[in-house]
Amino acid sequence: MANDNKKKNTGFAFACWLLVALILLVFFFVKKDTILSNLQNTDFFGRVFGKTPEFVQNHEQKQQAGNGMLHIDVLPETEPANETTHANVMPLSVPNLATDAVPEREVVRTEQKSETVAREEKKEASSAAKAETKREVQTPTQKSVATTNAELCFVVIGSDGSVSRKIVTRQLAKSNSPLTDSINALLSGPTAQERATNAMTLIPEGTRLLGASVANGIATLNFSEEFTFNPVGVQGYLAELMQIVYTATSFSTVNSVQFVVEGQREDYLGSEGTWIGSPLSRSSFN
User: Fold this and answer.
1) How close are the terminal C-alpha atoms of the chain, in Å?
2) Residue 205 has what pLDDT?
3) Are 249 and 255 spatial neighbours (Cβ–Cβ below 8 Å)?
4) Would you state the pLDDT for residue 193?
5) How high is the mean pLDDT in each 10-residue block of the chain (286 residues)?
6) 240 vs 228: CA distance, rounded Å
7) Contact 274/237 with Cβ under 8 angstroms?
8) 2-30 and 32-42 are packed helices; what angle lies between their axes, rounded to 10 degrees?
9) Which residues pair with 274 in a beta bridge?
10) What's the rounded Cα separation, in Å, for the pair 60 and 55?
11) What single-letter DSSP state applies at residue 280?
């Protein structure tokens, strides 16, 4: 009897354990994914036995493959960088003019910039032109040179070889030494227009005026050595002296001329012996 009770109790206990095992097994299959995930996440087998079974390791891979999802590690949020830091680390994107299309608004901006530059250049050119015009207006106009009429004595040689006077009027620039200007103009010879009227000179070529002064109605004129050599002879010496006297005495302050050669006062001019030892006036040639 006692054995029968013992067997019953043993059978009942076994049934209870079997029921519990069945419940656990059902619960395991229902919550298998959760249980395996917790075992995987807590690394239970690794901590207790030092090694995780393969079915636990394979469960995570199968779960990822079955869900068709990728495992993504989410990094913790960081504080947003300030504008300066962001500007420093942000890479610059430089468009390739050969391949990248320029936005339309960028083209418009470039055209507007070109128009602005063109307007600025036009303003600068206009300002420069105005400044140049202003300078031209402010530049004083050249004053007209004052002139005076000078009477110069040339000669005309007739067909018979006779020599006669020819007085011409020439405009010369007005200066403080009108006598010197007139004598130098006479030494330069007649102009083309004056030669057209048969005017000529018998003053030796190369003659230079070395000095001139006027005192008490007498003009003292100092000539270079060329003045003493006249290839025409006596008529030439008389003609050159006459030309000088009539030109000098055209001024109201001059009545006669004292000739000096190279600073020396001579009595005669040339080998022919034409008198120059005293002042000569127009009456000396009548």
Assistant:
1) 205
2) 95
3) yes
4) 95
5) 63 77 71 69 69 66 51 50 44 47 49 65 72 55 81 95 94 95 97 95 96 96 95 92 98 97 92 88 91
6) 10
7) yes
8) 80
9) 269
10) 9
11) B
Paired sense of beta strands 209-215 and 163-173, if any: unpaired
Find out whether 231 and 272 touch, Cβ atoms under 8 Å.
no
CB distance 166 to 199 below 8 Å = yes
Q: Tokens 């050599």 — which residue?
A: 229
Enter the tokens of residue 18.
């079997």
Helix (H) / strand (E) containing 13: helix 2-30
CA distances from 148 to 29, 172, 175, 182, 249 (A): 139, 5, 9, 10, 16
Angle at 224 between CA 284 and CA 157, to 5 degrees: 50
Q: Cβ(149)–Cβ(181) under 8 Å? A: no
Structure tokens at 207: 């003659």
What integer pLDDT is reported at residue 69 of this predicted model? Answer: 47
Q: What pLDDT shows up at residue 94?
A: 45
Q: What is the pLDDT of residue 146?
A: 92
Q: How high is the pLDDT of residue 111?
A: 54
Residues in contact with 165: Cβ distance below 8 Å, sequence separation at least 6, in sequence order: 153, 154, 155, 156, 242, 246
Amino acid (1-letter code) at residue 217: G
Give the Cα separation of 107 and 157 in Å (integer): 90
Locate tokens 């010879």: which residue? 189
Sequence-ordered list of residues with C-beta below 8 angstroms from that of 164, at least 6 positions apart, any chain: 155, 156, 158
